[in-house]
Amino acid sequence: MNLVVGATGFLGGEICRLLAESGRPVRAMVRSSSSEDKVAALEGMGVEVVRGDVRERAALDDACKGVSAVISTISAMPFAYDPESNGIQQVDVEGVERLIDAAKAAGAQRFVYTSISDNMNLDFPLRNAKRAVERYLRDSGLTYTILRPSYFMEGWLGPTVGFDYANGKATIYGTGQNAISWIAVPDVARFAVASLDNPAAENATLELGGPDALSPDQVVSIFENIGGTKFEVTHVPEEALTAQQQEATDPMQQSFAGLMRCYAKGDAIDMSETLRAFPVELTSVDSYARNVLAAG
Known about the structure:
By secondary structure, the chain is an alpha/beta fold. The chain is built from twelve helices and ten strands. It has helices spanning 10-21, 36-44, 57-63, 88-105, 125-138, 153-156, 185-194, 216-227, 238-247, 251-265, 272-277, 285-295; strands at residues 2-5, 26-30, 48-51, 69-72, 110-114, 144-149, 163-164, 169-173, 204-208, 232-236. The strands form two sheets. It has a seven-stranded parallel beta sheet with strand order 3-2-1-4-5-6-9, with helices on both faces. Strands 7-8-10 form a three-stranded mixed beta sheet. Helix 4 (88-105) links the parallel strand 4 (69-72) and strand 5 (110-114). Helix 8 (216-227) packs across helix 12.
């Protein structure tokens, strides 16, 4: 049995779909407050759904019974965030560490953890939480795989963070000239599933990016060429992002500012060696742009 924690998220849901389609048994742990539509979609795939919360050890012990592998994509950011009761410390650190303990106690053979790119190396709460859990997992004695994806196309090349392709407007963090290996969520899901039985994933940390390292300015040009619309571009200087992080009092606001600062510095990842061990066909920004512009 494979347990996916964070299954109602985009990445976790895609992992569940891939596992179910391949005929592997899948159990998804969802919170009692999870969207019933998302839960029904999981059940429609043939996924076994259990209710639980990473803040409750007893629920984790129940979810991990009979499990051979655990895949964790859970994070308080951004949709479930509550600074008092469901924040980065409670979920991204203590909750995932509690899940690691439960997996080990249940005799799980593999733990796959979704972190963030090594180049996201500034001091901010989410980054610090991810690195703390990585250390905890490495020291746990479990066979582990740590996935470190770059910036998700679906998030960072979408309207939520200012890349409003439908209306030809883009907010760019920094100069727009530093390359990023933008990666698609479904591709990260493929790496997560492949990690379950690929020897190259055993006790490995995988830096993950897309097929091309492209600057935000180059991405804008791709969207302009495909959509035939000239973008209105606004640049946010690194100095403003640094000030934003320093002035923020909320860990999620601090983390978003930190992620934007890392974006401004660039995140180019060479995937040649990784792809030799994991022959995943990566989604290009060009393909992503064509899909979202056609859908919109």
